[in-house]
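During the reporting period the student researcher (J.K.) took over the structure-prediction task from the postdoctoral fellow and processed the backlog of single-chain submissions. One of the processed entries is reproduced below for the supervisory committee.
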Amino acid sequence: MKTSAIVQVPIVAGYELMKYVRGRRLPGMLVLLGLIIGLILGLPPLLGIGFPSAPNEFVSSFAGFSSLLAVLCGVLFASDALASEFEKRTAYFLFPNPVRRETIVVGKLAASLAASGLVVTTYYAAATASAFAITGGVTWEIFLSYAYTLGYMVSIVGVAYFISAWMKGTVSATVLTFFLFTLVFNIVQAVLLVSDVEPWFLPSTAAGIIGNVLSPNAGPGGGFGGGPGGGGAFQTFVPEVSTSLLLFAAYFVAFSVAAIMRFKRRELVS
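J.K. obtained the following structure tokens:
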């Protein structure tokens, strides 16, 4: 990437982040995040349920919702990033500027990763602080779960950009991204497991490591609060950590590169 492009990437990312703030996506997501944290911490006392005394078991209730949070981040901050340029005709004003199309995609990718990372980091910061306040301790596994969630989030963003580069409308790109990770992958996973095939190549299956590192024997959605878990209701197989992390990286790189190539060749049509 040329020097001019390297300088332009942070500028594109900055403008994209400003769009998230002005469009109230980022503030809205943080409000939703506060509601989720409030429910996780507030409902057990109201229902007369005590908090676990072990930090890992306590944070596993937060981790049970981490994969869904990662999907929501991908949907809000990535799924319509490229499709909106064509649907809203903003590409007509953007493309004549001396900015290469791949620079635009990389800048938008950086903004999507930054916004999503901020949400995930805030979530785990609250979980860690709560664990320390209530159980009196923090473990290394909590930080591993946080890192695994970031990895899953990165893979979702890559796939979301690929979908967005092909779709004509923002709604279709958003809906397809959401249901791909919350429904389609889980259905494929269930069918493969019934057929005695290990679905190690599905990111939703690999996301099982998020909760597994905290409570290996609890199954999906372990802990006092439960949750959808890393791989959904059908999760009975979790790949090795190294395999899962390599899978997350491969999904991000492959689909991000494919999105850039598609965006470079996509024509403006009225």
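The committee noted the following: Residues 219-235 have pLDDT under 50 and may be disordered.
J.K. will present the remaining backlog at the next meeting.
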